[in-house]
Amino acid sequence: xPSHMVVVGIDGSxxxxxxxxxxxxxxxxxGRPLRLVxxxxxxxxxxxxxxxxxxxxxxxxxRLSAVHQTLAERFxxxxxxxxxxxxxxxxxxxAEEAELLVLGSRGLSGxxxxxxxxxxLSVIARTARPVVLVRADFDGRAEESGTVVLxxxxxxxxxxxxxxxxxxxxxxxxxxxxxxxxxxxLVYGYASAPLDEELTAxxxxxxxxxxxxxxxPWRAKYPxxxxxxxxxxxxxxxxxxxxxxxxxxxxxGHQLDHPGHSSxxxxxxxxxxxxxACPVAVVPHDGAPDGDRDxxxxx
Length: 299
Description:
Family: Belongs to the universal stress protein A family.
Strand order of the largest sheet: 3-2-1-4-5-10-9-6-7-8
Number of domains: 2
CATH architecture of the largest domain: 3-Layer(aba) Sandwich
Radius of gyration: 20 Å
Pfam families: Usp
Domain UspA: 6-135, 147-284
Structural class: alpha/beta
CATH topology of the largest domain: Rossmann fold
Organism: Streptomyces xinghaiensis
Helix content: 40-55%
Largest sheet: 10 strands, mixed
Shape: elongated
Protein name: Universal stress protein
């Protein structure tokens, strides 16, 4: 079982510094300790250029000490640990006993460009715990006041992302927007004939009723959270990215077939990781079969 701790990976980059800020806010908000982890994989060239390796490690060490001191001053009373490990970052992060992993993201906003660290993608694909990706331009004030957005696929969902989103909204005193996107072409097929407006409206109502049914037990469990459900016909990735504009946190699920083994990151999750401007929480789950709409919270 993961320990009751927030772990953030630090590599000295601006995005990892922003991730440390987000992680400290989350640790304070939830009453959990914080661990700053710096892992590096010794390069073969380090033996040939020891001064270069020493300079690189000294630079990261200075950044690590600076962020530790800054967070200790900003969050008095917060328990902060520092861990340094000379091993591959992915291996170290996967071995961490943590309730939540936080990493920096170089993802780009907008709908073009693809730039995301291989460490982040590798960890997300293999870990059985939630991972939050934070961009370098993270604004803590916006995060504290912004809406929490949950992307929910009604045909393949798990309860873990739903619970994570409701708890995040409750902890922040924020509203929760639950977004489900459906594609009429998957119902009609890809024929060139125009879509039938009456049938489309009926299917839209069906999706809305399904979302209402899924959320009902969660509304009862978290009565303090103001929840809005939104069903939109269109590309799930684009719908989520647009819904997350100005949000404090975007939550999406990742179906993990075998914890500890790499599972393919779906195109929707992959898209929001690259393009969403706000922090993104990827919550692994075991999925639910098509048509299973009874995934409420445990009593």
